[in-house]
Write a structure and sequence with these properties.
Blueprint (H helix, E strand, L loop, with lengths): L3 E8 L10 H15 L7 E5 L3 H5 L4 H8 L6 E5 L5 H15 L4 E8 L7 H7 L15 H16 L8 H10 L13 H5 L3 E3 L2 E2 L9 E9 L12 E10 L14 H14 L8 E3 L5 H10 L8 H6 L16 H5 L6 H14 L12 E8 L4 E9 L1
Parallel strand pairs: 2-3, 2-4, 9-10
Antiparallel strand pairs: 1-7, 1-8, 4-7, 5-6, 8-11, 10-11
Length: 385
């Protein structure tokens, strides 16, 4: 079977785009990706989105975006798995091309968080958990993360300041990303003096929800001309794994089992070990999620990932760079679109176009998207050919 490769990428800046509609953001990303791919026309479109039907009052995004991007007549629909929606859409695009049933697949991640204000936003985000048994009791994504963080600190005797290493790293990397929401590094004292949002979680331990759209075109290597202008990046491993939705139903809430299994399965398909990658684009929705994801993937023992951050092993010059373009914390978290942004940024690294954040001789990257506290985990291994 011919390799499934990424032929084009596109993205809009992440931000509070009050003046732009969901369709406008998505179409701009689609146009950028198609231009990057030399005008390839897709035969199918897979859209990662979480909140459009509630916040933008718009469903049936497949028909909407196909029409507004001039692609009437193609297959197009939405894939939803909370914060993993973009990663799940990318997997569906990969599977479609790998099966041979689709020659060119367009994957779009689009989210318009700032179409609403007030309590409706928190209510919408709370849908990531088990509504009947968690959300009606007041459990939200923020309180879930705070509970996990408190338990992690207690169980493994982790110092509270260690969590600051994740936002400090993210903001340092985001400073060089022109599409990031926050393009400024922060000082340690800024983190230490930040107000608590849900103790022990402070404002810098949370990735800011935002608006944005990103797009990727997938095709088979043998369908591209020999003189294709970009270095080719192939999808060499793909996996999606589900865990129990409610935290209280899990034997060990600190073990992101789905995250670990999806990494192992994707790496097994790619014929590598997790330690063979040059960088890891993980989901830092909350600082604690970064540590739990690293441990689930096997990069650190339980309760030890924070030491990797403190020792500088996760920096661009470290053993395992993460959040290379700012991650969710600095780039911003356009929720259902985030997984596609992660792929776009990984492709930039593998093409050698990541600018000041370029990892020297990067050949292979691991990308993981999470829905909720790893209730859904989607992992991909990308390699430069």
């Amino acid at each position: 079977m011919s390799d499934v490769v990424i032929a084009g990428i596109g993205q809009t800046p992440v931000g509070e785009h009050w003046e732009l509609s969901l369709r406008t953001l998505a179409v701009r990303a689609i146009q950028a990706a198609r231009k990057d791919a030399g005008g390839l026309r897709p035969g199918a479109m897979y859209i990662g989105n979480f909140l459009a039907s509630m916040l933008s009052h718009q469903a049936n995004l497949g028909a909407l975006l196909a029409e507004w991007s001039g692609l009437e007549g193609i297959e197009a629909y939405t894939i939803e798995s909370a914060g993993a929606s973009g990663g799940s859409a990318f997997r569906q695009g990969y599977l479609a091309v790998a099966s041979g049933l689709v020659d060119v697949a367009l994957v779009v991640g689009a989210e318009k968080y700032n179409d609403s204000t007030g309590p409706q936003l928190e209510f919408a985000l709370a849908q990531t958990g088990d509504y009947d048994y968690e959300m009606v009791q007041g459990m939200t994504p923020v309180t879930q993360a705070a509970i996990l963080m408190q338990r992690y600190m207690y169980q493994y005797n982790v110092p509270r300041p260690a969590f600051g290493e994740i936002p400090l790293l993210a903001h340092a990397n985001g400073a060089n990303n022109p599409n990031a929401l926050f393009q400024k590094a922060i000082r340690r004292e800024v983190y230490d003096n930040s107000e608590f949002y849900s103790d022990p979680l402070n404002m810098f331990d949370m990735a800011p929800y935002a608006d944005g759209a990103a797009a990727v075109l997938l095709t088979r290597r043998d369908l591209l001309p020999p003189d294709f202008p970009h270095p080719l990046v192939r999808v060499s491993g793909s996996s999606a794994v589900i865990d129990r939705l409610a935290l209280h139903d899990r034997p060990d809430p600190l073990a992101f089992e789905a995250a670990g299994r999806s990494v192992q399965q994707a790496c097994r398909q790619a014929g590598i070990l997790p330690t063979d990658v040059d960088f890891f684009e993980l989901s830092d929705t909350f600082s604690i999620y970064a540590f739990l994801s690293l441990e689930a993937a096997g990069y650190a023992k339980a309760g030890e990932a924070w030491r990797m951050a403190v020792e500088g092993k996760l920096a661009l010059t470290g053993e395992l760079p993460i959040l290379t373009m700012g991650g969710l914390k600095a780039r911003g978290n356009p929720i259902g679109a985030t997984g596609v942004y992660q792929v776009v940024e990984a492709v930039q690294q593998l093409r050698g176009t990541a600018g000041k954040n370029q990892i020297p001789e990067a050949r292979r990257g691991l990308v993981q998207s999470l829905g909720g506290p790893a209730a859904t985990a989607v992992s991909h291994v990308l390699e430069r050919i």
